[in-house]
Amino acid sequence: MLLSGVAVIGSGAVVGFMNLPGRTAAPAASPNGAQASSVPITRSDMVDTKQVSGTLGYAGRRSQPNRAGGVVTATRAEGTVVRRGGWLYKVAGKPVFLMYGAVPMYRRLGVGTTGPDVRQLELNLVKLGYKPGTVDKTFTAVTARAVWAWQRDEGLVATGRAEVSQVIFSGVRFGSRRTPSRLGMPLKVRW
Length: 191
What we know:
Layout: H1 2-18, E1 72-75, E2 81-82, E3 87-91, E4 94-100, H2 116-127, H3 141-153, E5 167-170, E6 174-175
Parallel strand pairs: 4-5
Antiparallel strand pairs: 1-3, 2-6, 3-4
């Protein structure tokens, strides 16, 4: 133990001697014989820029099923953000509306229909300011009155039934990157 303490003190003395003020060490030679040199260290921020061309867009392209049949007659302008209750596009002059929900609109919803898609519709009606009664999984006469009022306010034929051609359920709002289909073309929606 005594020997190891002497060895540590001895090595510290050598390091201390090498670093005395006024003493300069000879430049070290590299393995290929070139002389190493030193430069002063400057502290600053690193900044680098690179200019590239390209197009910015939304990640995660997704298709949204809709059973509206016919010809696309209107689309939203590129960059338009569509939120709950807004129309996404028009087929044969009739708007297709966005409502939030995880279950796709796969069937007509009317009095007596039950399921999670009914609950989604009722919740959307509440968020849009209508009164469908109790938000549950059952489409009642009260729900029909709320759907009728929503259809009337949107300029649709008011039937009190939510048609598969009128609504797309999606979990998020849409940002239109481009038109889903060209005007006058058969409907094929990709977002």
